[in-house]
Amino acid sequence: MEAKTGNKVWRAVSSLWREHSYIFVFIVILIVYAVTIQLNGKSFTSGHISSILSSQNTVIVGTMAIGMALVIITGQIDLSIGSALVLCSGVTIVVFNMTDNILLTVLAALGSGLLLGAVNGVLAAYAKIPPFIVTLGTMLIYRSLALWAVREIPAEISGSSSSQFAMKSGSASYEFLRMAFGTGSLRIAGFSIPYVSILFLLCVALFVVIAGNTKYGKAVYAVGSNDRAARLAGVNVDRIKASVFMVTGLLVGVASIIQACKVGNITPASSGRSYEMYAIAAVVLGGIAMAGGRGNMAGVLFGALSYSAIDFIIVSIPALSADIQDTFQGLVLILVILVQTAGPVVKERFTSRRRRSRPAAAAAAGTTG
Amino acid sequence: MSILEMTGVSKSFDGNRVLKGVDFSVEQGEIHALLGENGAGKSTLLNILAGVIPRDGGDVHFDGTHYPHATIAQMEKAGVAFVHQELNVVNDLTVSENIFFNHELTYPLGLLRRTEMVAETRKLFERLGVDMDPTRKVGELKTSQKQLLEICRALHAEAKLMILDEPTTALGNDEIEHLFSILRQLKSEGRSFIFVSHKMPEVFQIADTYTVLRNGELISSGAVADATPFSITCDMVGEQYADEDVYRARELGPVVLELDRLTSESFRDVSLTLRRGEVVALTGLAGSGASELMQALFGAIPLLDGEIRAHGKPASGSIRAAMRGGIGMLPTNRKENSVIPDVSVLENLYLAEHSLSARRQWIHNAREIAQYENLRDALNIRTQGPGVAINSLSGGNQQKVFLARWLNTDADILLLDNPTQGVDVGAKEEIYGLILELATAGKTVVINTLEIPEIQKVSDRCVVLYAGDVVAVLDHDQINERDVMLYSTNAMNAAKGD
Q1: Which of A215, B47, B471, B493 could be cross-linked to B52 through a Cys-Cys bond (beta carbons 3.0 to 4.6 Å apart)?
Q2: Which one is predicted more confidently, B288 or A234?
Q3: What is the Cα–Cα distance from A32 to A34, expressed in whole angstroms?
Q4: At what angle do helices B173-188 and B114-128 cross, to 10 degrees?
Q5: Distance (Å, rounded) from C-alpha A292 to C-alpha A315?
Q6: How far is B486 from chain A (nearest CA, A)?
Q7: How many CB pairs under 8 A join A and B?
Q8: Going from the N-terminus, what domains does chain B have, and what CATH number goes with each?
Q9: Predicted-assembly ipTM surpassing the 0.90 threshold
Q10: Is the minimum CB–CB distance between A229 and chain B shorter than 8 Å?
Q11: Which residues of B touch A289 (CB under 8 A)?
């Protein structure tokens, strides 16, 4: 009886492992983080989790990674999101500095994001240029436009020197935005959750629902899995392929509101560098297949959390400098994927060897019997 | 003297005997036509000869040597060259680089002796009367030139016996003439050919001898001069064994689908009207345009001219237009064109319905599962449940899921392209029964198939295409294997020409 329930638990765990291995990855990383904190003589508290939840790598990269996940599920890639973030944040800050209007600022962020995404989508899906090339091009274009604009726009509008866009402080709307999308947090039962983390979680939840419960979501998976068959079932493949870039653009808009309000400024020359790669890493750690067609949107949440937790681990070890951070993140990424891809191969070898030796064992049993 | 002697060759796949002790021999300096219906065992025999697959039994003697365990490399070295139907040329290399591919002339350190290779290629072309620039990129060549290039490559590799697998499907009439004149010249030099073709006029034009296979057995063999297109066709199809069990004459309804002078790159001037509840078969050998016609009906390939009307309203131009007109297509090549491998049976089933009803985005899971159960019971689909992977189902059951995909959209004109491809015999019978059931229930069904017994079993009319033209429209009583084959190979006209 005991063995039976044990079996059931084991089967549940192993199916969870197969389908949602990204949860285990996150738990392991979290445990490592807790252990390093304890070794440093401090204690691991809810504050640590809260700071992972609200770190830039989670909320800014994570929000964009949701879009990246959709793009990757359709079998495409978007390299432009880091640059798009910089350009959108610039637009957001400039519009805020000019209007001091919250609604207009939010609309400018979302609208500019949508536009930049639409450029990618139209070129990739309708002009049939490989997405890698399209977004490589726009990656260069978007950042350079931001660099050019920050120099050309007068300081009273850009809000700062010739190298940075910065929110003008002082007004009531400034205080509100900084609080809502920046430092503010919700307190429930002694646990404080930053508003930006809630926003991120809501975005993830929204897209989990879209991917799993709408016809659009199903079409996205179908296109990534077999676009010929999807076309012959009446799916407008080009439109789906373009739309995921536009959704990504909208999410870049959301991320740029967070960037503008949480940080208060953006430096086109240095901000958002490699964010597209971090987002891809979060998607991969979230168990979404690079080949397209497969993966759970909830994985993006855990992927982004895992990715920023690694950051915190490095920072919490005094002997390591921050420069070595990317090395560890790269190593963990490769290790996780190695376990995922090599695991089944090793298992296959193991079971086939067992299968081969079984007839021999049976024959041996036959002779003794 | 026989250059090739194959005796008692047998082969089984998964217990299914596809070759049952076949004898096959080719004399030196002759063109030998190998004939048979799809599935007769031709390609298996040729693949055994070329060393692509091992045989279960029998002997292969080539050029006086016995090959007990032939491999591709051995047979190539001995002088057997397989010119495949799908072209095996490298588009990004030049003509001469293709000729010398894998046998390049080199200096030490592997540097290529390019000028020598070009010169040698030029000499080869001159000898054969081929007009091609050795330094051109192969990607820029016409299909017919690529075909010639493959033959030249085989010759350059000193092939003594060349297997030409339907070499004329991609060629125009002048190009076929040119190819044949080259073959005749090579024949006079003592080279031998195995010529696989479905086009009877060509066989009688070029071949000296022939062999007919049917169901893995040797049926007849001899000199082409002693045979007629009619006798060979009869040998190919054999006894009439189609049982008429499932077919029943039915009352047909009003016209639901009109094709008005449809023309595309692959077919010309096709006009037809189809009635409610009618089953119409399109047939024709590779290159006949039958499959393209079906795809054009579904809007999957463009029309150059003509119009399709479904229920009196225009339905041509795009897949969506066809779908709104109530047309659904079960494509050929299930794996490539139907299966969404990463999603479940239910999601595969609902894909077409979702794209038609995209205005209401929310998915009602319980409702979909109930509908899935209805369709599962109606079509007798055997699955472990709606959530399992589509690839866990057998071929026949997958095919039923994709049929259900269209029934679920209430499509009343169903286009079935090779619906029984890759499904086993039992499932085939089930699908035939299903087609007639659907027709009785008022669906109009168009099937495109090469299997004539299948056509006999289910169709009210049969439309035969040859090289893009409708050559015959046969009523149910007129459909028999011999006549359909005579029309599809154009043997009817070849016989008239004699």
Answers
A1: B47
A2: A234
A3: 5
A4: 100
A5: 34
A6: 33
A7: 80
A8: 2-237 (3.40.50.300), 255-345+410-479 (3.40.50.300)
A9: no
A10: yes
A11: 342
